[in-house]
Amino acid sequence: MFAPVYFDYNATTPVDARVLEAMLPHLRGESGFGNASSRHDHGREARKAIDEARQQVAAAVGAHPTEVVFTSGGSESNNLFLKGAAACIKPGPIAPVIAISAIEHPCVRETARDLVRAMAHQGWKLREIAVDDQGRIDAGDYAEALALWPRLLSVMLANNETGTIQDIPALARQARAIGGWFHTDAVQALGKLDVNFRELNAAGVHAMTVSAHKIHGPKGAGALVLDKRIELRPLISGGGQERGLRSGTENVAAIVGFGRACELIAERLKQDVSRFADMRSELERGLMQLGATVFSQAAQRLPNTVYFALPGIDGETLVGKLDRAGYAVASGAACSSANPEPSHVLQAMGVAPEIAREAVRISLGSDNNVAQIADFLAVLSDTVFKLRRLSALAG
Question: Does pTM surpass 0.90?
Answer without folding.
Answer: yes
